[in-house]
Amino acid sequence: MGLPRGPLFWLLLLLTAACSGIFVALYSSAVESYPEHRSGARNSTSSRAFLGPKASNFWMSKSTSCRHPLYPAIQRHPHFRALFDLSTPVLLSGGLFTQELWDRLGQHKAPYGWQGLSRQAIASTLGLLNGSESSRLFAVSRQRLPRCIRCAVVGNGGILNGSRQGQNIDAHDYVFRLNGAVTRGFEDDVGTKISFYGFTVNTMKNSLLAYAHLGFTSVPQGQDLRYIFIPSDIRDYVMLRSAILGVPVPEGHDKGDRPQTYFGPEASASKFKLLHPDFISYLRERFLKSKLINTKFGDLYMPSTGALMLLTALHTCDQVSAYGFITSNYWKFSDHYFERIKKPLIFYVNHDLSLEATLWKDLHEAGILWLYQR
Ligand SMILES: *[C@@H]1O[C@H](CO)[C@@H](O)[C@H](O)[C@H]1NC(C)=O
Ligand SMILES: *[C@@H]1O[C@H](CO)[C@@H](O)[C@H](O)[C@H]1NC(C)=O
Ligand SMILES: *[C@@H]1O[C@H](CO)[C@@H](O)[C@H](O)[C@H]1NC(C)=O
């Protein structure tokens, strides 16, 4: 979850601890298994609000095969019903780039916008994301998708050490992983399947540096794997463009990097997805509006990579399970499942993990997702 940072982060951590009381409010919540928890679910209406009326019959019949569809659970919950807007675009594709968008996003810093970023760099990247596959997460056409899209999102939390959840995770239609998601040697606990890998260039490269000795020696690759770029910096746009073109990074912080080193030989727009800055703003405003935003650390704060992936899944899948995410008893476990010696989870000021813990617990209790706990 927390990536190793320099001394500045430790200092900021201490300052924040002093001024805002960061540690998670602990709740003792009984571990519920999904079937019992959701046995009252009857309404199997389509969870795909973004589809037009024409598609709704199809999705209606499709989601009846979901045992725990998240959309009806959202509809039943007064608080979450007001927060979720499933029509918000999750991905940014070339077709959405307009002068109006440029002007509006120019008012916000990354990852929420483009303030101070080069228009040429943004426009040339988005120009490559112009195919229809760039606006949707799932590669196959709707008709060929599973009748109920079941997704597992696998965070890297130490709770997965010894969990033996690998088979359960791999049984989902799509599996999201992120940052230092090493699977080799941990198959019994975390499985092997990977459909999406989420990251910022910064977190990806930090993970390779920090966890190489723990087995994370390369970014996951595979024919069916898609990469989800989180646009936290101009670096992400520049790397994304170079990855699609299959050329070395021509400029900036990562100049000279060969994207194939990270993402494998396939260079094509369909391999790469880009989260929409508006989606990240929406998530921050509605789900993760941390008190940190109004402190002097406000510019450092953003939802964690795991949070962005889990909320992406909640806005695109029909049913979602979360593994390796922070729970109220996080202190019992190591920071990451792949550590050899227990290392406590550190609450850095760039994320608000206590707020995220509360959100996962509340979504679990509302039946909107299922959170692995032990
Ligand atoms: C299911 O939920 C939808 C959307 O909220 C609603 O229109 C419909 O009446 C509900 N159906 C049942 C059987 O509750
Ligand atoms: C997308 O842009 C590329 C490069 O400009 C162009 O070759 C391609 O035809 C475009 N594709 C679509 C679907 O517009
Ligand atoms: C992982 O789990 C094993 C078995 O429960 C335990 O002995 C070990 O200390 C754990 N590793 C870490 C890093 O917590």
Automatic annotation (TrEMBL):
Q: Name one Pfam family in it.
A: Glyco_transf_29
The gene behind this protein is ST6GALNAC2
Q: Which GO terms describe its biological process?
A: protein O-linked glycosylation
Answer whether the UniProt record assigns the keyword Signal to this protein. yes
Q: What is its EC number?
A: 2.4.3.3
For this UniProt record, give its keywords in alphabetical order, as a comma-separated list: Disulfide bond, Glycoprotein, Glycosyltransferase, Golgi apparatus, Membrane, Signal, Signal-anchor, Transferase, Transmembrane, Transmembrane helix
Q: What residue range is the signal peptide?
A: 1-21
* Protein's UniProt name: alpha-N-acetylgalactosaminide alpha-2,6-sialyltransferase
Q: In which pathway does it act?
A: Protein modification; protein glycosylation
